[in-house]
Amino acid sequence: MAEHGNGDSSSAVVATGEGESGQYAIDNPGLPPHRPRLADVDEKAAKRSERQVSTLFLISIIGTVIFFVGYFAVGRMDAFEDYFEGMSALRVQNTLLGIGSALAMLGIGLGVVHWAKTLMPDHEVVEDRKPLRLEKDREEAEKIVNDVIDETQIKRRPLMRNTLIAAALLAPLPAVVMFRDLDRSEDFGVERMRHSLWSPGVRLVRDPTGTPIRAADVTVGSAMHVIPETLREIPGHGTRLSEKAKAVTLLMRLPMDDFQEPTPGRENWTHEGIIACSKVCTHVGCPVALYERHTHHLLCPCHQSTFDAADEFKVVFGPAGRPLPQLPISVDDEGFLIATSDFTEPVGPTYWERGHTDPEGDYPAS
């Protein structure tokens, strides 16, 4: 341990300002010498970099076009129904939307980065802070802006500038279209969600094969996804998907002894232990798809809302505010499962406005 005495220090560390000349112990080495890049000294290399940047911006433009093809053509044109069946068209559309969005954003990002690394000046600059002078500051700020514009070479390289402008203008359009399409009808709300394709006599069919289901073929403990048989009769891929989103249903068969006492008026909503409910969670609309056969619980994977199938799908855990809507079912003369009515309340999240009487008188006010 170093000892100090009589004002002398035996420390080996030289503090700032100490030393023979009052200098730093280690002199400031300053900025390293600038090493010019190939594009700085070779105009051909600079032109090549310009073409590369412009190509990346063009890729961004192509990505936006791919997005619109997937969004409008695959999703909206009936002609694609001849090539895609069922959910295949949806998968193609989602793939095009994802690839298009990725290319649109990635092209601009990589283009700007490559532009900065190969063409913009890369000198390191140290600038001392200066006292503020209003008029002088304005002139200096104007000079800085002009210097930045000159350094980007955007005036000298119109190909790169024009492709950047085109890509920047097109890239936000997919987001604008998607946000606009969140509500394509003036009457969007509870009335749109009150009714689905289920109606008296409509057969329950397997999703996605469309095979009708005999009650005798449903075993105890089984669960399956079903849709209305009439879903395939609706023209237009987009319309079918919209209706399917409201009509998707889970079908299960429980032992008869496990059911709780039904609410008055619901005694005939099941058939020999076979019961059906909406697949759309009443919390925020996620698909309920996990069935635990021993407890008869249905679990929503998004926020763990849990519903009891043996007790009219009431909430037993989680944030859901009401039970899953139950679909009344029976069998026809051939033994196939059919619906006896539509859902008796709107499907989907609880936050739908449900506080008024249905115009057709089908549902009571909530």
Kindly summarize this structure in a few lines.
The chain is an alpha+beta fold and 366 residues long. It has eight helices and ten strands.
Structure characterization notes:
- This protein folds into two domains: 137 residues, no CATH class; 150 residues, 3-layer Sandwich (Rieske Iron-sulfur Protein), CATH 2.102.10.
- Strand 9 and strand 10 form a beta hairpin.
- Helix content is 34%, strand content 10%.
- It is α+β, with helices and mostly antiparallel strands and 366 residues long.
Span from first to last CA? Answer: 83 Å
- Average of per-residue pLDDT values: 80
Please state the second-level CATH architecture of the largest domain: 3-layer Sandwich
What's the CATH topology label of the largest domain?
Rieske Iron-sulfur Protein
CATH class bucket of the largest domain: Mainly Beta
Shape: elongated
Output the radius of gyration. Answer: 34 Å
Major sheet: order of its strands? 1-2-3-4
Number of helices: 8
Low-confidence stretches: 1-7, 9-14, 353-366
In helices, the fraction of residues equals: 25-40%
GO cellular component, one term: plasma membrane
Organism: Nesterenkonia sedimenti
Keywords: 2Fe-2S, Cell membrane, Disulfide bond, Electron transport, Iron, Iron-sulfur, Membrane, Metal-binding, Oxidoreductase, Respiratory chain, Transmembrane, Transmembrane helix, Transport
Family: Belongs to the Rieske iron-sulfur protein family.
